[in-house]
Automatic annotation (TrEMBL):
InterPro entries: Memb_transporter_dom (IPR049453). It is found in: Membrane. It holds the Pfam family FUSC_2. Keywords: Membrane, Transmembrane, Transmembrane helix. It comes from Nocardiopsis eucommiae. This is FUSC family protein. One of its GO terms (cellular component) is membrane. The chain crosses the membrane at residues 32-51, 79-98, 104-122, 129-148, 154-175. Residues 43-163 form the Integral membrane bound transporter domain. Its main location: membrane. The lineage of its organism: Bacteria, Bacillati, Actinomycetota, Actinomycetes, Streptosporangiales. It is a multi-pass membrane protein.
Amino acid sequence: MGELPLEGHTPRSRIRAVATEVRDRLSANASLIVLAVIAATLAWTIAGGLVQDHRPFFAPIAAVIALNASGGERGAQALRLLMGVFIGILAGELSLLVTDLNEVAMVLATACAMTVAAAINAERIIIGQAAASAILTTIFVGGASPGIDRLVDALIGAGVALAFSQLFFPARLVALLRRIEEDALNEMASMLALVGRSLEDGETSSEQVVNRLGDLSRPMAELSRARESSKSTIRLSTIRWGDPQPVLEEDEVIERLILLGESCLFLARTTTAMGVEEQRELAPIVTDMADVLTILADDLSSREARERAVERALTAARAYGTGAPEDDPVTHATHLAVEMVAADIMVFAGIRFEEIEDVLQGDLEDPTVPHPPGEPWLPWLSWRPRWRPRWRVRARLPWRRPGDR
């Protein structure tokens, strides 16, 4: 008899996996789709009532384009859109003064608009909008001024987008950052789980590890970009009117998560130089660490999940031990890597940095894991709910590694 296909490789399981991915994508973008549809309808209605005798086709387009960005970038997206429209309309009107031939005017206007946008080091969306505005300004020449009509449409569309993204439905930046953290934790867990299975089967090679490290590069890059863009988002959004402290605190969490990712990379790298017996001994430890990261990723706002993660990380690290003085450098590095992963997990969970060494050595049996701070409801208000109990107030934690000076 032939072997049955492994679970996870059957057509049904593949279809189920694809359906799950599609559902997750739709769930992640459902709010944006609904918001864009409402904004487009409202922009069309307002522009049609304010500007007579023209079809305000660009007002809903401007609203959708301005909203088609990550939550923290929608305000900046609307401003970029307006800049491109201004450049394109100006280039189109000047070209119509030079020649009456629409085709020639379109060529001149498009070239001029894109050249000006590129000369001021504008982003690609501005260059594209400048070209589109120049083309429409020179082609749709009628009784009314096409440039002015398009400018009014753009102002209305961008205004609706700004009202939606900054006042009525502001971006919950902390929630966005936590989704990025969740993706990074899941990628780390997936990488360690694969390494653990390879160690158990004795199939670990440098090439395999390099491929797995490459899979982790995208979420790590996302973490770095999120940390860099969060401060600019505060400046360019209504969050600056309220309390930016939750966002700044989440930036610190991202920095600790980046350190955790580096520890996981170090652990995965050291496994390739170990012997077969040592690899099989390490396999359950690596698998346990992967399970710990999955527990954290499942609910970043849960104190109980963080407590379970800390307990399992400690159990795994203590089971592997600190090694012996006579160990070879590779074995010593592996023990250090396991301790680093456990320590960074505990710091990420909220344990005070100065307690980490005592916890690892068993001198502190019951470390305190504080409750993660809640997400602000309305980012543009300085008010935050005060009903949280005392244990939900998180202490600010340093995130240096042991041995840093």
